[in-house]
Specification:
The structure is a homodimer.
Chain A: H1 4-18, H2 26-41, E1 59-66, E2 73-79, E3 94-100, E4 103-110, E5 117-125, E6 130-133, E7 145-149, E8 156-162, E9 171-174, E10 181-184, E11 192-194, H3 200-205
Antiparallel strand pairs in A: 1-2, 2-8, 3-6, 3-8, 4-5, 4-7, 9-10
Helix pairs in contact in A: 1-2
The structure holds fe (iii) ion (2 copies) and magnesium ion.
GO molecular function (chains A, B): dioxygenase activity
Protein name (chains A, B): Cysteine dioxygenase
InterPro entries (chains A, B): CDO_1
Chain lengths: 207, 207
């Protein structure tokens, strides 16, 4: 199986985001996508090792796949022990599937008058869990959050799926005290992606 | 422009191979695809350098893109001086666009009685040229050929597009004297593909 799982997931997400009625029903894409991602991260036997290397500090955002029309992308986030993100938003739907280790996501809501960010729900993800992120106003709670590796002695890995090319869009980090947004274009850590399409060894073996 | 050309080509080929009527009209895919590839190789300002490195000998087959449903792929072939392939077939349509340097393609036809391979047309490609390969019986001349770097003092690069995941299919090399086919699964040279989707630098620059 192994890398086949990722290829199958990419095919399914391509069908889902390229479907006719789904174009007008983002909720359906998110709901079905979350189930597909749940299947993918239920097994930890497929992530190419180049995309699983724990960095010395902080976190790596390794692009595994981008749809040719940038309708979705798949990214492996690899967290150093205790690493965390700034408080940030996404400007598109997002799905976070826990593959290895554990992470927490602390949600923030904006105070309607002052704009100050108020900490809300703390979600802890264990392997196989999927968190759904949908921006305001479609989701009143919004998608502003801060993610932290829940483990202080080991790396953790989550697989993120977004409704666009997340590394290339204008989004924001936030100053929690003032609620001030700052322009954020995250990019990707990897200049090279694993070649997931070289099935020659298995084809030769089956010949 | 640069890498945008490749992204645009991939999008256009995805639309072309994913279209409704094209599924039943391979000739149209090949004809339109050849025009699109001609546009791509008219400019030599977009190939990522990892995929352009001239090997010490022989040739590198670097996968640049594979369609999520393996309906087509894009490969950069980088030839060492004088390098050539075995005589081989493809088992799918193919397009060869010359990007840098020059190569020759020597076609072979099978003798109807003896099966022996008879050399036929010699095609020389210069930058911007596109060769179309269609297997027998759809093309009576067939697609069996041998490709050689026409330059003996420099590397050459051609961009190949095939109607499937060329590195992962069972195809053949041939013994010219006897016509004997041998199983051939070419694979790819690169274990990593260039990340062509990190547009963060240009988005930041435009912000
Ligand atoms: Fe996030
Ligand atoms: Fe060939
Ligand atoms: Mg189709």
């Amino acid at each position: 199986m192994s890398i086949d799982r990722l290829r199958r997931f990419i095919g399914d997400m391509t069908s889902l985001t390229g479907g006719a009625w789904q174009d007008k029903d983002e909720n359906a894409v998110v709901e079905v996508g979350a189930r597909l991602l749940g299947e993918l991260v239920k097994h930890d036997d497929w992530l190419p090792e180049q995309a699983a290397k724990v960095p010395a500090h902080g976190y790596a955002q390794n692009l595994l796949w981008c749809d040719p029309f940038e309708r979705f992308c798949v990214v492996s986030f690899v967290w150093a022990p205790k690493a965390n993100t700034p408080v940030h938003d996404h400007e598109m739907w997002g799905l976070v599937g826990m593959l290895r280790g554990s992470e927490t996501s602390l949600g923030f809501t904006r105070h309607p008058e002052t704009g100050v960010l108020v900490p809300g729900t703390l979600t802890r993800l264990e392997p196989g869990d999927v968190e759904v992120l949908v921006p305001a106003p479609r989701n009143p709670a919004g998608d502003i959050h801060q993610v932290t590796n829940a483990l202080d002695d080991r790396g953790s890995i989550s697989i993120h799926v977004y409704g666009g090319n997340i590394g290339a869009v204008r989004r924001h980090t936030y100053d929690v005290k003032t609620g001030q947004p700052n322009l954020f274009v995250s990019g990707y850590t990897n200049r090279e992606q694993p070649n997931i399409w070289d099935r020659s060894a298995e084809v030769r073996a089956a010949s």
